[in-house]
Amino acid sequence: MTEGMLSGIRVVEFGYAWAGPLVGKTLGDLGADVIKLEQDNSRGGHLPDDPALRAALDDWRRGEEVEPTLRASVFPEGEPGSEPWNRAGIFNKHNRNKRGLCADLKSDSGKRIWRRLVEASDVIVDNFSPRGSKSLGIDYETVSEWNPQIISVSCTGYGHTGPFRQRVSYGPVLEAHAGGALATGYAEGGPMKMGHAFPDPIGGLHGAFAVLAALWEREESGRGCFLDLSQLQTYAAVAGDLILETSVQGQAPTRGNRSRSCAPQGVYRCRDERPDSRESMDMWIAITIEDDAAWGRFRDVVGDERLDDLRFATLAGRYEHHDELDTLIGEWTRPQDRFELAGRLQAAQITALPVMTNGDLVESAHLRDRGFIVQWDQPGVGVYEYGGFPIHFSDWGPPEMRPAPLLGGDNRQICEELGFSAAEIDEFVADGTLVDRPPVGGSR
Amino acid sequence: MPETSGLSSVRVLDLSDNVSGAYAARLLATAGAQVTLVEPTGGSPLRSRPPLLSSREPKRSAAFEYLSAWKRGAALDWSTEAGWSVLGRLLDRCDVVITTLPAGEALDFDGRVRSGRPSLIHVSATSYGLTGPWAGWRSSDLTDWAASGYLYITGDPLREPLQGAGPWASYVAGIGAAIGAMSALHARRATGRGQLVDVGAMEVMASAHQWSLVMWSHQGRIKHRANNRHAEAHHPVSLMQVQDGWVCIAAPTQAQWVNLCIALELPDMADDPRYATAGLRFDVAEEIDGRFAPFLMARTRTEVVEHLQGFHVPASAVLSMDEVLGDEQLQARAFWAYPEAAGDGAKMPGVPFALPSSPESFRAAPELGEHTRAVLQGAGLGEEEIASLAEAGMIALRGAGDD
User: Structural domain boundaries of chain B?
Assistant: First the structure.
């Protein structure tokens, strides 16, 4: 194994969904030893006797549109297989470069394992609500008594203090609360949520930064700390300029795809495609004309004399007649291939880019040239492609890609490292403290 | 200098003129690092970046005031040979330099500044990164959204795709750049060597997708826009209308769904097999939302949210930025900073999360040249040298007692 940038740092990640696992994934990519701590129902929804799943598995036939119950998990080729909890693309994507420990923390044996894990680790990551972390015994008060050097980062929705600290949330809920949803939308329409739960990656990346800063601090002070990270705050932080504007101007930001400093700017339809060999799909290009010089270059490429109209010669004129310009530009882009067109416009020093689909990102020549698209052999799944690590270091990397852990896949090895004897570990397995399968009988 | 501890011993030069680099430097500053913004004598381009605040003349940029808080500011033209040599003396005394130069210039800059300074860390924040076929391509906030893959999946499926309200791809790249800077600092502790850290917004954003990339690589399916629903197998995770506006309600799990149905006084829906999973519910979302509507439209945002949270169903009002400014949770957590020079009532996010080394008090964005003299003195330049640089127009000073 190549020496990672964070070699020697052990992280226990007790996260679910996205933000917490993203903290763990980022630290794991950087070379930390990340132990993903799960409970037997952590990968719930894939429980073998969940009646809805059972029905879906029975009904499902290869080659048909993926049954909705199975869509959420993103199984390879839509096939859940005999151990669906180990085959979900969405889980495996978020949890590479981690080892897997699945233990019942509420049992006496589980508490012993947890304590030794805390004593042997540098960082604990969770994204449980304050109530949840207290009831699991993973709160800072408890763990810092066992290991004063521990850095505990809790990436909750609202934070551990304040009147809403007990509220439950997901990313889109926080996006609404932080003003992002109402600020986003078509010029004349209502609020619009982002295509993914955007506060999660924003919270998770901030969380990874916070851990790195706290580790640095600990090197000098010798002290650990508790990091109370609120995803509401980290999302509001990336809207800082809009919030400041509102505080002074007293008005909501403008919406839509136009720019406040230049015109025209828009998203224009190109030739449709059939990327997945099924239905025809709409494809688009984004274009920004920064100034008069760029407008001149753009007119040269388009070659439509209607654009030479003096009404469009100035920025003010282009703003005033933006609708008309959008129509003319849209007519021009409509039959064209978005990649070929973007290339032509960029060659003429015009800011333009194809509106990338998820398929475009994976197939992107640019991302592949940079080594961003990676693959690994996921046990029980096979070799598939994934997004890689987005930070490039001249002196290190790219990071090794180790598969996501099977549920409880490293139970024995980790317990051995924590100093438990083979007989003790056998007992943990026998009494159900250590497990490697979801519980039978539905989610708890 | 007071005795330094933690990140306060880390010195950062921020040469960036776009949001991504500036936000990376701001994050490092809010974690306690000493950050110096070095801008041209005519002012950073960020000083004229929208949104512009009209309450004072000359108009200030909200982006600059926000992104430059907690930084000291020096004005220096380093495009000339003499200016470059002064920059070199600043670089001699710093740990991390952040740039947002276009690819070719960034690599050239890197070669020049890191030769002879083996421990210097250079963090480059750009749209596409420094290598690859698109490295030299032009970008805007909108094309950053296009490159990120978020644009295609946000908005109405029957209309054009929609960008987010702010330059958030750049902000996300900035977080990536700050992670890169900290990682390189940790690595340097072991190796003694600095390095080039190359961060592109396109890749950081591509990493910030929940399942789209595996949806293609595992199933060959394109992810579509879904308006205010969460696609393609999750319902409800949606914005819904109530009496006085909108709320977001999220109940993807079985337990949340059951609680939601009980809370909305529609218990029969909890047992209906057609609604048994979030995926099944997504395919009949219209029907479900129609059944929820009478309850929701008879109540306000506050009533609905407090009611649902009482049933442990994730929910929030859709707030305007104005309402966010008055939010009791953010107020209770002392989240706000007050940059008075930006205008009456000016209020903005402060430290996003508190680290032991985070600054205790607020420091507003620097006026142009506010700390030039102190920064140059700190790099060992004498009064005469500073005076002659000022005379030659290579630096801008402001006031007599700056800093």
Answer: 6-207+335-396, 237-319
Biggest distance spanned by C-alpha atoms of chain B = 84
Give every CB contact of residue A343 below 8 A, 6+ residues apart in sequence: none
As a whole number, mean pLDDT of residues B168-184 equals 98
Closest partner residue to B211 (CB to CB) among A74, A253, A359 is: A74
Token reading at A429: 């397995």
Q: What is the dihedral of CA A230, B214, A283, A354, to 10 degrees?
A: 70
Q: How many CB pairs under 8 A join A and B?
A: 549
Residue A397 confidence (pLDDT): 82
d(CA A93, CA A389): 12
* Inter-residue contact A49 to A23 (CB < 8 Å): no
**Residues of chain A contacting B317 with CB distance shorter than 8 Å:** 176-177
Round to whole Å and give the CA distance between B155 and A400: 36
Q: How far is A373 from chain B (nearest CA, A)?
A: 10
Helix axes A108-119, A422-430, angle to 10 degrees: 130
pTM of the model: 0.96
Name every chain A residue with its beta carbon within 8 A of the beta carbon of B34. Answer: none
DSSP letter, residue A164: T
CB contact under 8 A, A220 and B6: yes
Interatomic CA distance for residues A386 and B203, integer angstroms: 12
Residue with tokens 């010798």: A222
Q: How far is CA A408 from the centre of its chain?
A: 23
> Residue B360 CB: number of other CB atoms within 10 A?
7
Contact assessment for residue B106 and residue B130, using Cβ atoms and an 8 Å cutoff: yes
Instruction: Please give the Cα distance from B241 to A4 (Å, whole number).
Output: 49
Is this prediction's ipTM beyond 0.85? yes
Closest CB from A195, A196, A243 relative to B349: A243
Q: Which residue of A has its CA nearest to B351?
A: A237
| The pair of three-digit structure tokens given for residue A103, joined into one six-digit string | 């233990």
Structural domains present in chain A: 10-43+88-238+367-430 (3.40.50.10540), 265-357 (3.30.1540.10)
Strand partners, A286: A267, A353
Check B230 against A45: CB less than 8 A apart. no
Q: How far apart are CA A31 and CA A11, in angstroms?
A: 11
Q: Which of A6, A90, A245 sits opposite B211 (nearest CB)?
A: A90
The per-residue b/e assignment along A346-365, b for 16 or more CB within 10 angstroms, e otherwise, is beeebbbbbbbbbbbbbbbe
Q: Which CATH class is domain B6-207+335-396?
A: alpha beta
pLDDT tens per residue, range A340-349: 999 999 999 9
Residues 6+ apart with CB under 8 A from B42: none
Q: Measured between beta carbons, which residues in chain A are less than 8 angstroms from residue B255?
A: 443
| Cβ neighbours of residue B288 closer than 8 Å, sequence gap 6 or more | B235, B236, B269, B275, B281
Record: contact B183-A393, CB cut-off 8 A: yes
Give how far Cα B10 sits from Cα of A266, B87, B196, Å. 42, 18, 17
Low-confidence ranges of chain A (pLDDT < 50): 1-2, 45-48, 57-64, 442-444
What stretches of B221-310 show up as alpha helix (H) in DSSP? Answer: 254-263, 267-271, 278-283, 285-297, 301-310
Q: Which fold would CATH assign to domain B237-319?
A: formyl-coa transferase, domain 3 (3.30.1540)
Q: Tell the residue number behind the tokens 């605040």, with chain if given.
A: B53
Tell me the pLDDT tens digit for each residue of B121-136.
999 999 999 999 999 9
- Whole-angstrom Cα distance, residue B19 to residue A241? 10
